[in-house]
Backbone:
């Protein structure tokens, strides 16, 4: 499947949230985000943040995401394709922005899956089932757990792990970093420390390749 086909398909999935696939920052917001990122470079990535890809990759995508966010779900195949096409050179660092009701529990499910080395399969299952479990205002988290179980998660073990100090601390740290960086929407991307100026599929791909060419 070529990139254009993938983007069009993803747009169909996320069109309600993305309004055609694009959120555009105004100039002032971009400048503010750049300033905050430069002042808080050590906050963008924490040692315990989930990483997908090689540690020594030349390009780092940091994504602040919410498992209940429709736009995050729509962007996931695009991010995955970028990683698949550049396995030696691009890595993804996931930071959590649990803005929606039920999101914090969904984040805990993902972290419990990481303990079981099932992070990506469970993330994909949670995103795929998002329209079922993540009804805004009345999320059904048991459906999210069921989706995770279908991806191989040992749910009994995971329900215990989500209460572990390590997972609770990670979620609390990410929430504190959201406030420090003044991030208010998801997804929010940084490529090698620089914010994505326009949150759309094509610009994400372009900015990653610009970083690869530098």
Residues:
């Amino acid at each position: 499947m070529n990139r254009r086909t993938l983007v069009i398909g993803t747009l169909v999935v996320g069109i309600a949230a993305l309004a055609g696939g694009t959120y555009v920052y105004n100039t002032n917001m971009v400048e503010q985000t750049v300033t905050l990122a430069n002042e808080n470079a050590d906050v963008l990535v924490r040692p315990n943040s989930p990483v997908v890809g090689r540690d020594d990759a030349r390009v780092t995508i940091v994504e602040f995401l919410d498992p209940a966010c429709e736009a995050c779900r729509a962007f996931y195949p695009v991010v995955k394709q970028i990683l698949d096409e550049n396995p030696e050179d691009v890595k993804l660092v996931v930071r959590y922005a649990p803005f929606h009701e039920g999101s914090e529990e969904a984040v805990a499910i993902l972290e419990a899956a990481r303990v079981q080395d099932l992070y990506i399969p469970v993330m994909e299952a949670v995103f795929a089932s998002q329209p079922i479990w993540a009804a805004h205002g009345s999320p059904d988290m048991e459906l999210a757990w069921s989706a995770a179980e279908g991806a191989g998660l040992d749910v009994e073990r995971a329900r215990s792990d989500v209460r572990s100090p390590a997972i609770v601390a990670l979620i609390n740290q990410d929430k504190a970093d959201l406030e420090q960086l003044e991030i208010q929407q998801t997804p929010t991307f940084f490529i090698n420390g620089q914010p994505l100026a326009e949150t759309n599929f094509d610009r994400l791909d372009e900015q990653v390749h610009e970083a690869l060419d530098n």
User: Anything to note?
Assistant: The chain has eleven helices and seven strands.
